[in-house]
Amino acid sequence: MQSLGNGTVFYDRQTKKWTAKIPVGLTVSGNTAYRRKSALTKREAQALRLAMLAERATTPSSASLPTFQTYAEHHLATEARQEIRPNTADGYLYNLQRFAFPKFGDRQISEITSSELSAHFSELRKHYSASQVNQLRAAMSRVFQSAQTHQLITDNPVRRTKPMRKQEGDRTLCQQPWSLDECKYAMEAAMETHPHDLFIHLAILTGARLGEILGLQWSDINFSERTISIKRSLGEQRSRVAGDKIAPTFSPPKTAKSVRILSFGEQLRSSLERHKVYQDHLRENAGEKWVETDCLFTTRSGTPVWLTNFSDQFRKFQKSRGLRVVNIHSIRHSFAINALSLGIDLPSISRALGHASLQITLDIYAREAGDLQNAATEGLAEWFQN
């Protein structure tokens, strides 16, 4: 950490007194904190400066630094919100409240070492997935990096720890995606139950994320040009105090390239029209209780849906129709893998998925793309042999 200076003595024209000022540490926002005393003469002010320096020298330097919890809460409530989405900042805070503050919250931010962090991450890994521990690691790294930027600490200790790796047998959010036949059966089954009809068609035919689908509004649908504009994502806002989910909330999509326009065909057009009729019935039944939000997917009173509630209902729908139960994110993978199997090029799939770069798509679907490439080269070799 940068050493403190020796301060200065100056004449204050407003108070018409001499002022002695010395730095005593840093504020929670990373700015220099000062201590001041006034005197009638310059000599007296110089003596006061020396006395304050002597007093500072007997005070532990760490006493001027904030605790990890104090600094983390301040950072995530202020400057972090200029750099990341509010939902992301709330998610970071939630993870810190659960897994970091109980152990490190009351510690001075400069005292926490990489070896302590590494041991803590390893202990958590015994009970939680690699992904969940790495999310905590990312949240703590952001806090320490900010503290380093503001010169509260000399380096970021999280960077000297290693990310957790998935192990064989770990539970994973991504299950075996639906095949083309399973997707076809799901769309046919969903047509009989209007609440899931449109969602199934959107998920299978566009590959959009759950929050992007539930965040759609009728103004995003252009029936004449048959396009859907992905402009926002629906999430669940968390309380900054307890981390509890308190309200559905709209935010921009995950990345800049996630804002996109997708074309749709006859199947999706028919599903959209069926859903419009279904929503009209909901509006009529709700009467004066209906809240107009323009959302495609709503509660029975017209308000935005809760993601967790919707996911639970979707799981029940799969079981009731005899579908192989998968989580919603796996249907996004179904879109990509089925599109690859039908010969659609990877850049087009990447743009449809709203990935920030083609490399991300390649990293996720490297094996599937490689299998298709091998099949192509083998097929071409066989053709020349004939």
Report on this model:
By secondary structure, this protein is mostly helical. It folds into three domains: 8-62, no CATH class; 68-160, DNA polymerase, domain 1 (Orthogonal Bundle); 184-322, Intergrase catalytic core (hpI Integrase, Chain A), CATH 1.10.443.10. Helices cover 49% and strands 12% of the residues. The protein has 15 helices and eight strands. The protein has helices at residues 42-57, 68-77, 86-99, 101-104, 114-125, 130-149, 180-190, 194-206, 210-214, 266-286, 307-320, 328-341, 346-353, 358-364, 366-385; strands spanning 8-12, 17-26, 32-39, 221-222, 227-230, 233-238, 245-251, 260-263. A three-stranded antiparallel sheet has the order 1-2-3, covered by helices on one side. A hairpin with a 5-residue loop joins strand 2 and strand 3. The chain is elongated, with a radius of gyration of 29 Å. The model has no long low-confidence stretch (mean pLDDT 86).
Stated plainly, the CATH topology of the largest domain is called hpI Integrase, Chain A
Structural class: mainly alpha
The mean pLDDT is 86
- In CATH terms, the superfamily of the largest domain is Intergrase catalytic core
Largest sheet: 3 strands, antiparallel
Number of domains: 3
Series of secondary-structure elements, N-terminal to C-terminal: EEEHHHHHHHHHEEEEEHHHHHH
3D shape: elongated
Question: Helix tally?
Answer: 15
Indicate the percent of residues in helices.
40-55%
Radius of gyration: 29 Å
Low-confidence parts, pLDDT < 50 over ≥5 residues? none
Second CATH tier, the architecture of the largest domain:
Orthogonal Bundle
End-to-end Cα distance, whole Å, is 73 Å
CATH level 1 class label of the largest domain: Mainly Alpha
Percentage of residues in strands: 5-15%
Across the major sheet, the strand order is 1-2-3
Number of strands: 8
